Recover the amino acids of this structure.
């Protein structure tokens, strides 16, 4: 019975150490998982629901610059990536020339649908007078991004369409490509080329940067509104004839609804939006005076509430995991101490006298004493293994049953025991030096110290 208690004590201490490490790993994993979930929430909302807290969805960006059947003639457009122009709509065999990337054009005729259902517009370069029919897909509206010659370097922008990053506006050597919706900052510019302004687009987190036409970019606003977005006034504010001020055209009261019809435009580091009230009054207003309205605002409010509540609950649960882990370890530690205290003192014998004799033998100048020291230490090892509850005809049989978790020094025990067997079997034929004898005794000593036997 006493041997069983001793074995239970040692096994419990080893299990406590393993479980403590496993609990620490689990807690760390839970915290990392929480951080990953919180980091991916905005991405999930944009991809699945079109709701975003960091900018407009890519589809909205593209739609804000795209032409439609209702686009009026005389509208200024641009070819961000350049395009060929033709003498006849839909007839790509009548190529007349090529408009370079960024060329500013004017719609003169169209749209005309070809046999494949694609729309064509007749456009003209006002600087050169060159004109022809081009596909609608290669054109974007000028001025939809809200940038101007006065836009400050360092301003955050976002790409409206897919495009190419060029080495310079004059030398059209491609450095890379950009996807619709990518973010970056204006690092240089503007430079005039082909009737349009060019900016150096410094993409966030990438060395793949370059020059792009202004028509490819839009100001980056945290609000993510676009034409048709419903907004609500946050305070009583004037509506101005242009971004930045001018004649007052109307008044938007706190809580009054309006619809976004233009913008954003940055003036002096402040975003401005053009809005239209229900009575038809239009005017420009600062972004800080507006907030989301309609279902978009309601949905954002609901989603934000869910995210906040979910985050609080998750933090509470993670805190609970940490608390339970700490309390469990405390209970295990107390139980291990209680079990150890219950072990009879007789089960914790101090074998210092025997160990002292072993040390005296190995320090002797007589080789027979060295052999006697190893044999005596092996007897002490056999007593420890037997008290741990392992069964077998010999010490070797019992050592085979010992798990590494129950004896950290099992390798030392095996090596020392093998030398003892060689001494027992070979007798005086086994060559044993005093240095080797001391090393073997040290192996036994490591085992005895682990189990507080010495």
């Amino acid at each position: 019975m006493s041997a069983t208690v001793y074995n239970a004590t040692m096994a419990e201490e080893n299990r406590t150490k393993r479980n403590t490490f496993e609990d620490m790993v689990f807690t760390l994993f839970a915290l990392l998982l929480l951080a990953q979930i919180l980091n991916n929430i905005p991405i999930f909302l944009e991809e699945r629901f079109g709701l975003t807290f960091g900018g407009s969805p890519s589809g909205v960006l593209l739609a804000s610059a795209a032409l439609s059947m209702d686009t009026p003639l005389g509208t200024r457009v641009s070819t961000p990536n350049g395009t060929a122009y033709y003498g006849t709509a839909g007839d790509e065999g009548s190529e007349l020339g090529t408009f370079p990337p960024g060329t500013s054009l004017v719609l003169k005729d169209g749209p005309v649908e070809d046999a494949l259902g694609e729309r064509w517009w007749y456009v003209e370069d006002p600087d050169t007078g060159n004109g022809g029919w081009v596909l609608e897909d290669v054109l974007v509206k000028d001025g939809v991004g809200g940038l101007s010659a006065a836009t400050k370097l360092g301003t955050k922008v976002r790409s409206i369409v897919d495009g190419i990053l060029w080495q310079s506006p004059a030398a059209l050597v491609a450095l890379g490509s950009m996807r619709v919706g990518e973010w970056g900052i204006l690092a240089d510019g503007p430079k005039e080329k082909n009737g349009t302004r060019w900016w150096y687009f410094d993409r966030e987190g990438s060395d793949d940067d370059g020059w792009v036409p202004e028509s490819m970019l839009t100001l980056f606003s945290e609000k993510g509104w676009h034409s048709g977005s419903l907004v609500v006034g946050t305070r009583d504010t004037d509506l101005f004839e242009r971004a930045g001020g001018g004649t007052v055209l109307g008044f938007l009261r706190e809580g009054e609804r309006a619809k976004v019809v233009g913008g954003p435009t940055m003036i002096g580091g402040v975003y401005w939006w053009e809005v239209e009230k229900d009575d038809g009054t239009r005017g420009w207003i600062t972004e800080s005076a507006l907030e989301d309205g309609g279902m978009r605002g309601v949905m954002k409010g609901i989603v934000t509430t869910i995210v906040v509540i979910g985050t609080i609950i998750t933090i509470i649960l993670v805190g609970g995991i940490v608390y339970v882990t700490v309390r469990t370890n405390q209970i295990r530690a107390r139980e291990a101490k209680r079990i150890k205290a219950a072990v009879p003192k007789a089960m914790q014998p101090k074998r210092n006298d025997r160990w002292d004799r072993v040390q005296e033998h190995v320090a002797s100048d007589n080789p027979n004493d060295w052999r006697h020291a190893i044999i005596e230490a092996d007897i002490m090892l056999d007593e420890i293994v037997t008290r741990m509850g392992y069964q077998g005809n010999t010490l070797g049989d019992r050592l085979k049953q010992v798990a590494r978790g129950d004896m950290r020094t099992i390798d030392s025990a095996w090596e020392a025991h093998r030398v003892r067997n060689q001494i027992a079997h070979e007798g005086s034929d086994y060559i044993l030096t005093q240095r080797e004898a001391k090393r073997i005794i040290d192996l036994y000593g490591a085992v005895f110290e682990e189990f507080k036997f010495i």
Observations:
- Residues 294-342 form the longest helix (49 residues).
- The mean pLDDT is 79.
